[in-house]
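Section 3.1: Structural characterization of target chains.
Under the original work plan, the team committed to producing a structural model for every single-chain target entering the pipeline before any wet-lab resources were allocated. The record below documents one such target. The sequence was received from the expression subgroup and is listed exactly as submitted; it comprises 393 residues.
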Amino acid sequence: MESNPGRSRWAPRFPLRSSCAAALLAVAAALSGSGCTSRVDNNPTTVTASNVRLTAAQRQNIHLYSVVPSRFRRTLETNAAVDFDNDQATSVLAPFSGPVSRLLVSQGDEVSKGQPLATVDSPDFATAISAYQKALATARTDRRLADLDKDLVQHNGVSQREYEQAQTDAANAEADRDAALRALVSLNVPPQAIEAIRQGRPVSRPGGIIRAPVAGTVVEKLITPGELLEAGTTPCFTVADLSRVWVMARLFGSDLSAVSVGDPAEVVTGINAHNFPGRVDKISALVDPDTRAVTVRVVVENPQHALRKQMYVRVLIHSRYESSGLLIPVSAVLRDDENLPFVYLAESDGSFARRHITLGSRVADQYEVPAGLRAGDQVVVAGGLFVQFMQSQ
């Protein structure tokens, strides 16, 4: 093998490697300078990274949009939960005391007005029937005595004072009789049984039946067989008309300024193909201390009962009043690796810089941008994905 006269066989190789490394660094720097330039923007929302430069041919596929102030009506989207309309819901309290012997309906059943809901083995019936029988007898006796005194006082058989006292006793006895009758009616004693008591016929103690006060759906069943009820105190059922429901939405911060009572809304379930129209009915005056949210009530017609209590839905609230701000097309918005929204901004030197933005509400095919852009900025609305690809190279 020939020896190289210009280089010793045992000469060290490290100087050669160092020179190669330096050359590679020089080439990389040259390539970097030809493809992109480093830029630091004073705006904190601009990413401190290399801007993208495109050739004239590549720029033919890039379309820009000039950001200008606009007037628009905001649409707010938020989470919500369905509740029944409390204005059309009736709580059924126990009309008498005693243990529940049987439940006749289940939660979710449709009931008509007066339909039996449960039976109760109550001693209140025997007490009320006995009180009515005694009041009837006393009222009849006192009225007969008062009528006799009326004849006697005309012939000086009794004094005027005795006559007036008899009339008072008869009136008091009749008032007690009427009160005892109302007690039977409140216990839902059948009219046939009440008529039998008036005629002095023996009657068996009727069963205690809790009945639906209104027509609707049993949305709550609060008692179980064997449970001891207390008259006028124990809640037993809730019957509601579900043809209209409340959708309770939550809004935060500045979104509240765009919403007012009467604004139209849409409820999106994700189950049905169509949305349910509604209307903002009330905005709470209180802030939830746990979530810092304000509850907004939307009234929605629900004729097919598709919306059910505790169902989670999305609500779109369309403000009736105009707002002003900056809007950009939806196509301009991209997402980074952390799912944060950004756009590509055209710079004065012909490059494109990535700019993170804050998205507000969506207005048709545009987004409101509360922060991150200024009037006069030009953003990429077509070809943004290509610019993103070039930046990643």
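The CA atoms of residues 151 and 257 lie 81 Å apart.
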